[in-house]
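The authors assume throughout that readers already know how a fold can be written as discrete tokens. Each protein is reduced to its one-letter sequence and a matching series of backbone shape codes. I therefore recommend that a typical entry be quoted early in the introduction. For illustration, here is how one protein appears when written out as sequence plus structure tokens:
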Amino acid sequence: MNNRRFLLLIMLAVMTFTGAFAQHRISGHVSDGIDTLFMANVVERDVNDSIISITHTDKNGNFSMTIKSPKNYLEVTYVGYEPYKVKIGSKTKFNIIMKELKAIRCTELQDTERQLLRPNLAITDAAKLSEEISYHSLNLRHYE
């Protein structure tokens, strides 16, 4: 009889312990109000702005992820759109509509080798820079 009580007590303790660290599942849809946004970054951030977990949207703009705490924030980013940040709270479904960034017109770019890039993006020394411009760190020196 005592063995059964002890075993029951152990099982109850394990269930309580795992329940205390239970994670919650959230899901949602990301669009710009017209089209869905494929491969948008969806990030769970804590109050210190540290990344806790991350996922991205599928081809239909849907995402699903396990969060660590409802006290954290959900941040959605996509190239050309303003970041969207919302407290998770008790919500489990999110319908996120992203807003486009206002256009920034570059008047001049300069890469790390100090080659000047003009507004039409004609590169002074195209042979050096080649097609791998994404690997160069660019400095936006003048912009409007």
Remarks:
- Residues 2-20 form the longest helix (19 residues).
